[in-house]
Amino acid sequence: PQLVIGAFLFVVGLYFFLRDGKALVRRLAALLPFSTPDVDALFASVHATVKGAVFGAAVTGAVQAGLCILMLFILGVPGPFVWGTFAFVLSFIPLFGTAPVTAGATLYLFAAGRPVSGIVMGVAGVLIGLSDNVVRPWAQGSKDNMHPLVALLAIFGGLELFGFVGVFVGPVVAACALWGLDVYGRSKQA
User: Fold this and answer.
1) How many CB atoms within 10 Å of residue 93?
2) Closest Cα partner for 51 from 168, 149, 178, 182?
3) How far, in Å, CA of 144 to CA of 48, rounded?
C-alpha cells in the first residue's frame, strides 16, 4: 500500500509541477536571500542534477536490460526480448530492479533440467543487479559534474531516507549542499 500511495502522490505531484513549475521556480527565486547569480547557479545545479538522475536511470535500465537480453538469449530462455523489456521497466524500481526477471529465468532453467545454465543465470543475475551500483553513479555524475562517489552516496542516502523517491531527491539535496559549500567558499575568499 505504501508503494501505491507513494507512486500516486509522485504522479500527482509531477503533474502539478509540470503544469505550474515555472511559476513556482520564479516565486522561489524571488524569496531566496541570495544574489541573482547565486540563485541562477543553484537552479542550474538542481536542473542538471535532476536531468542526470533521469539520464542515470535510463542508462542503467538500458544496460541492465541489454545484459538480461544477452544472458537470456545465450542460455536459451524463451522470449528474451520480452523479458528484457520487462527488466528495463523493473530497473526503475530500486528495491526490486531486474531481480524478478533474472530469478524467474534461473528458476525456469533449473525446472527445465539445466542446472549449469541455472547457476550461470543466477550469477549473471547478481552481476546485472550490481551493475546498477556502477552505471548509475557514473551516468548521473557525468551529466551534472558531480563526483561519482558523491552521486553514489547521494543515491543510496536518498533511498534510505526517502524511499523510492530518494533516488531523485538524494542527488538534488547533494547538489544543493555542494552549491552551498561553493557559495560559502567564494564568500570566505572575498
Assistant:
1) 15
2) 168
3) 5
Tens-digit pLDDT profile for residues 76-129: 999 999 999 999 999 887 778 899 999 999 999 999 999 999 999 999 999 998
Q: pLDDT over 90 for what percent of the chain?
A: 32
Q: Which residue has the cell 550490481?
A: 130
d(CA 149, CA 158): 14
Give Cα 180 to chain centroid, integer Å. 24
> Exposed, middle or buried by CB within 10 Å (0-12, 13-18, 19+), for 165?
middle
Cα R_g (the chain), whole angstroms: 20
User: pTM for this structure?
Assistant: 0.71
The alpha carbon dihedral of 11, 16, 18, 22 has a sign of negative
Listing DSSP states for 93-139 in one string gives STTTTTHHHHHHHHHHHHHTT-HHHHHHHHHHHHHHHHHHHHHHHHH
